[in-house]
TrEMBL record:
The lineage of its organism: Bacteria, Bacillati, Bacillota, Clostridia, Eubacteriales. Pfam families: BPD_transp_2. The chain crosses the membrane at residues 20-39, 51-73, 79-99, 104-125, 131-151, 172-190, 219-237, 249-270, 276-295, 307-324. It comes from the Bacteria. It is a multi-pass membrane protein. InterPro entries: ABC_transp_permease. It is found in: Cell membrane. Keywords: Cell membrane, Membrane, Transmembrane, Transmembrane helix. The keyword GTP-binding does not apply. This is Ribose transport system permease protein. It comes from Sporobacter termitidis DSM 10068. GO terms for molecular function: transmembrane transporter activity.
Length: 329
């Protein structure tokens, strides 16, 4: 009797290999970049200096995007991240000027982890929808930043620029080294640890996760710590790159989350073929490359570029949520 074997399509199986898919994706990005460079002319787009500008602008959003990956994996949304970045940037400068380079890193990590941990305590114990609580917390953190700015005792500390000797992590190649370390840590935690598996199980179905013996409260608090550390590192890089962060009011801090959010939404589109932690840096380069191209073409930021960003987020969100049944959080 002949045994029926399932038919296999070697071509399709090859594309399911994430390494092959990543290589094809990067090759496609390079081809498109070459085409755009030809359209722009004068080798402006692929000029090494311009490529350096694109990459340098992606560093801190990559860390925020990795933090968002953990938030979204457990089914929560936190819109106070932008305000946390502002306070984390203040703390980075303050601790850096006091303690030197170790203080630069400690300042961002402490504020990022502490405030995000506080947020998840609020989410877990109050049962308020996370997006509502996040907006409320954003207003609290913005008000705290304003209070520090207008207070006579602390205003001089807020207006102080970070010492140029402490801004190594805002420059290449040190910022790329930090991204490489961050990538390894994010990948291992997300894919190879019990905490990472519990976080994703929680986002899949909270009741099933609880039935499997996962401690829901403990897992949520771990999300706050892990995501907060990545947000804290984003504050370190952002402040090291810019030297000073301005106070945000009227919920304008939320705007700081839009570009990292677009990165995550695009990464979710690729998630079926490529691990989302791996997809984030690739998507960051794509998105910032597009905005850099728009700038070269004379489309100013603050107007049409933001319209493009909004359109991208809608499109990425539609494709990323294909096949999802029920209400999307």
């Amino acid at each position: 009797m002949q045994t029926l074997q399932p038919t296999k399509d070697p071509a399709k199986e090859k594309h399911h290999n994430p390494v092959v898919f990543a290589a094809i994706l990067i090759a496609a990005i390079v081809v498109v970049a070459v085409i755009f460079n030809f359209i722009v002319g004068d080798n402006k787009f692929l000029d090494p200096a311009n490529i350096g500008v694109i990459i340098s602008h992606t560093i801190w959003p990559i860390f925020v995007a990795w933090g968002l990956c953990f938030l979204f994996a457990c089914g929560y949304t936190d819109l106070s991240i932008g305000a946390i970045l502002v306070l984390g940037s203040f703390s980075t400068t303050l601790f850096g000027n006091w303690l030197g380079f170790p203080g630069v890193i400690l300042g961002g990590l402490i504020v990022g982890a502490l405030l995000t941990f506080i947020n998840f305590n609020v989410f877990a114990f109050t049962k308020i929808p996370s997006w509502i609580a996040g907006i409320s917390l954003a207003m609290v953190y913005e008000a705290l930043a304003v209070a520090l700015k207008v207070n006579k005792t602390t205003s001089s500390l807020i207006y102080t620029d970070m010492d140029k000797g402490l801004r190594l992590l805002g420059k290449m190649p040190w910022s790329l080294v930090l991204v490489a370390v961050g990538f390894i840590v994010a990948y291992i935690i997300y894919n190879r640890t019990t905490v990472g598996l519990n976080i994703r199980a929680l986002g899949g179905n909270k009741d099933v996760a609880k039935a499997l013996g996962i401690n829901i409260l403990k897992t949520l608090l771990w999300v706050g710590v892990i995501a907060g550390l990545f947000i804290g590192l984003a504050a370190v890089v952002q402040q090291s790159f810019a030297g000073r962060t301005t106070v945000k009011t009227g919920l304008t801090s939320i705007y700081m989350v839009f570009q990292p959010l677009a990165i995550v939404l695009l990464a979710q589109v690729l998630q079926k073929r490529l691990n989302i932690i791996v997809a984030v840096p690739i998507c960051a380069v794509v998105i910032y490359g597009v905005f850099n191209l728009l700038t070269i073409l004379g489309i100013p930021s603050g107007t049409l570029q933001e319209a493009f960003l909004g359109a991208f987020m809608i499109v990425f969100g539609i494709f990323g949520q294909r096949g999802v049944k029920g209400v999307v959080k």
